[in-house]
């Protein structure tokens, strides 16, 4: 993504289709935004509600649903302008409403408008799409929403829902908008030439680091939940994962802000990398653990999607395969080997391993973009003149270092700001559920349960239904029958 040239102007009330509007680009942008929205609602709502223990299905799904709704209101009221508006600081824009009625994104007089910023020696090309500002606001809104929902994956099964309701607008305002403006909205990292095509840093690295940090402050799940946390519906989890995968066509394909050749390349690269990563992760499970894991395959799919995101429209197909091999193996190694052997990582309860699937994979993708970004595709992305990956020589080595520096900025900012937000919320309301809520789950927190397993909607009654489903143990009787004890 890059900064958009947003200019005020009166709307032509005589026609809903002004002369400058490119209906094809506008249609693709709205479709892309819808695809990204479907990744969250229902995609991650279904995935979260299915991948957790049954007693947390409602709470996990609701955390995602609430975050989506809250971000929509906060984004249009003040946060969009903080990410894509006028500069307040080198890393932050001025807050203000963006309700889409009075402003348009117009084409400048020349196809490519070259501008010089601050010291005059950094050349940046401005993106000038042919569609209404409302399309841009909504497209960027669903990106902001999915970032908070991904972050929630680190906190499932113990965060106080009321604390989460406070956390969402605060983190959106003081963390997400900084990364978005710095890298996409015309901030200092964008001017410097750090490339983040579709959110490897702004979305995935930030959500992974922030989720891991928040998990430290909230504390771990109950001992029973940490020791045994089976998915309540693997098949439904795969449905949510499938929505996430297919929705990534809009996630990466919409970021040229146009239905052009770059968007097509981005969609193809996205699927190549995701498929490669899934296969590599699965084969590593088979080689080292003797059986393929369905959840592992989903994790490999996600790391591939995350890794290609910062470079989807900047690399060639062969590079997408290489990135898929690395995204299926490096996060696998950090999650399955390093995490299990390094005590500091084990002490922080990252419920769904968001640190590995998003922070590790996002930083990996950003640095690999610094190696594999093809010069011609970089020119289509319109960052800084003569940008290229390290394997193409010239200034490629500098680009690789820029990518590392940009990632370190996102990591540092999220560590500090997320910690401050959690501490401040903790002064007002407990970050963590009560012991009773942790023991009972959804029924105690929401007064609702995910499945009416014991009859026509009746609540579970131990005196009538026997042991609780999550704690059933099957044993063989003396005559070979299976009984539940």
What's the pLDDT, averaged over the residues?
86
First-to-last CA distance: 56 Å
- Structural class based on helices, strands and sheet pairing: mainly alpha
Spatial order of strands in the largest sheet? 1-4-7
- Choose one word for the global shape: globular
Looking at this structure, what is the CATH superfamily?
Ammonium transporter AmtB like domains
Q: What is the number of E strands? A: 9
Q: Topology as H/E string?
A: EHHEEEEEEHHHHHHHHHHHHHHHHEE
Cα radius of gyration in angstroms: 23 Å
What is the CATH topology classification name?
Ammonium transporter fold
* Number of structurally distinct domains: 1
Q: Number of helix segments?
A: 18
> What is the architecture at the second tier of CATH?
Orthogonal Bundle
Query: Class, according to the CATH hierarchy?
Result: Mainly Alpha
Outline the low-pLDDT stretches. Answer: 3-14, 102-126, 468-485
Question: Could you describe the largest sheet, including whether it forms a barrel?
Answer: 3 strands, antiparallel
Please explain how this structure is put together.
It is a single chain. This protein has helices at residues 23-51, 57-84, 133-152, 161-183, 188-192, 200-218, 223-227, 234-253, 261-289, 294-308, 317-341, 343-347, 354-372, 375-381, 396-428, 435-440, 442-445, 462-465, and strands at 6-8, 87-89, 92-93, 103-105, 113-116, 123-126, 131-132, 474-476, 482-484. With 485 residues, the protein is mostly helical. It has a single domain, classed as Ammonium transporter AmtB like domains (Ammonium transporter fold), CATH 1.10.3430. The strands form four sheets. A three-stranded antiparallel sheet has the order 1-4-7. The chain has a two-stranded antiparallel ribbon with strand order 2-3. The protein has a two-stranded antiparallel sheet with strand order 5-6. It is globular. InterPro entries: Ammonium/urea_transptr (IPR029020), Ammonium_transpt (IPR001905), Ammonium_transpt_CS (IPR018047), NH4_transpt_AmtB-like_dom (IPR024041). This is Ammonium transporter. It is a multi-pass membrane protein. It is found in: Cell membrane.
């Amino acid at each position: 993504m890059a900064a958009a040239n947003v200019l005020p102007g009166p709307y032509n009330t005589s026609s809903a289709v002004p002369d400058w509007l490119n209906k094809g680009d506008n249609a693709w942008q709205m479709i892309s935004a819808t695809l990204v929205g479907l990744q969250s609602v229902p995609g991650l709502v279904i995935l979260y509600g299915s991948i957790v223990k049954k007693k947390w299905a409602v709470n996990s799904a609701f955390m995602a649903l609430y975050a989506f709704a809250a971000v929509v209101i906060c984004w249009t009221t003040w946060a969009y302008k903080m990410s894509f508006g006028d500069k307040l600081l080198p890393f932050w824009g001025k807050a203000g409403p963006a309700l889409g009625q009075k402003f348009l994104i117009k084409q400048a007089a020349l196809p490519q408008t070259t501008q010089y910023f601050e010291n005059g020696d950094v050349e940046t090309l401005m993106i000038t799409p042919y569609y209404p500002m409302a399309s841009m606001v909504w497209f960027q809104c669903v990106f902001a929403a999915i970032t908070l929902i991904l972050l929630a994956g680190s906190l499932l099964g113990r965060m106080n829902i009321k604390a989460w309701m406070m956390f969402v607008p605060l983190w959106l305002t003081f963390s997400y908008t900084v990364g978005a403006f710095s890298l996409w909205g015309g901030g200092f990292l964008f001017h410097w030439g750090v490339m983040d095509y579709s959110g490897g840093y702004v979305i995935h690295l930030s959500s992974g680091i922030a989720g891991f940090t928040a998990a430290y402050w909230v504390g771990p799940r109950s001992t029973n939940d940490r020791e045994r946390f089976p998915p309540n519906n693997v098949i439904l989890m795969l449905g949510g994962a499938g929505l996430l995968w297919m929705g990534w066509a809009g996630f990466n394909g919409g970021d040229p802000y146009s239905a052009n050749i770059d968007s097509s390349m981005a969609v193809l690269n996205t699927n190549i990398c995701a498929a490669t990563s899934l296969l590599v992760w699965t084969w590593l499970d088979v080689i080292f653990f003797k059986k393929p894991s369905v959840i592992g395959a989903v994790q490999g799919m996600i790391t591939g999607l995350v890794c290609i995101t910062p470079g989807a429209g900047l690399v060639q197909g062969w590079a997408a395969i290489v990135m898929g091999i690395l995204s299926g193996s490096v996060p696998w190694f950090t999650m399955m080997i390093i995490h299990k052997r390094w005590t500091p990582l084990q002490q922080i309860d990252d419920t769904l391993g968001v640190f590995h699937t998003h922070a590790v994979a996002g930083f990996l993708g950003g640095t690999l973009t610094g190696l594999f970004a093809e010069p011609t595709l970089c020119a289509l992305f319109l960052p800084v003149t003569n940008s290229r990956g390290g394997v193409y020589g010239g200034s490629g080595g500098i680009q690789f270092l820029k990518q590392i520096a940009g990632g370190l900025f996102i990591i540092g900012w999220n560590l500090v700001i997320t910690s401050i937000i959690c501490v401040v919320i903790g002064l007002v309301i407990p970050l963590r559920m009560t012991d009773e809520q942790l023991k009972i789950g959804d029924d105690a927190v929401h007064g609702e349960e995910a499945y009416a397993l014991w009859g026509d909607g009746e609540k579970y009654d131990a005196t009538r239904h026997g042991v609780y489903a999550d704690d059933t143990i099957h044993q063989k009787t003396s005559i070979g029958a299976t009984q539940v004890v």
